[in-house]
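Before relying on records like the one below, remember that each one covers exactly one chain. Contacts with other chains, cofactors or solvent are not represented anywhere in the record.
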Amino acid sequence: MTRHVFSYIIFLSLICFNSKPNTVTAFVTPCHVSKNSPQRSMTTTTTTAAAAAQKTMTEDELIGIAKEYVFNTSPDQLSPDFVFRGPVIGPFNKADFVKTFKSMAASDKKGMNDAFPDLQGNVFGFSVDPVEPNRVWYFVRPRGTFTGPFDHPTVGRIEPTNAKYIAPPEARSVMIDPETGLIIYASVGYITDRFTGDTTKGKGAVFGLYQVMGQELDDVPGSWKMTLLQKLSSILPESLGIPKSYSKKEELPAWWKDERMGAEK
């Protein structure tokens, strides 16, 4: 149990990898978003990561950048000051984020795409935040079937059971630096309704996939067990192959001020 909890971070943000070592493909499928939405000028505020930049961007420009990131994710789209955060994982700086995913892309093991070959992200609802004007929110309602084998990083191969993967609606977001057009922040994993008839016990992102495969993980912010395991993984030698749950505080971009790490509440 302890060993496989450590491995969850490999699949953080429910991002699956294709065979190209320098490409990260977001766990989503193409969706249609109307281009007839009204325009409004966007400027940064002092509360955003790009507070120093005062370049304006239209709503279509912001949503266009967000959609490109979601549907065709690449490290080149990430700002040098990029931060990734989920409810109990992260914060990750760009280097740690990309390093984790590139290591998985080069793997010849059976991954999430093999285990759930019919996986659909069902992405919808791109919209610009009225308070943080360079932040774009969107939703996913993933569906799939556990019909293929999955090579778990620590417990070995998990054979398929044909179990249905029906995830609850989940909110995600990206924040864009208007000066460069690069993604400076990404968040995933925030369930909006856990009473929609899901098969994941109300869990989203990778926690939901693991739940369907019979590998339950603690996704509760403030969990002392998860917090302890994360702290332990952060001090163990990298040679052991145990993935990090977050970057070192001193290696995070200066704009990131929140002191909480991983599952800390």
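The chain has six helices and twelve strands.
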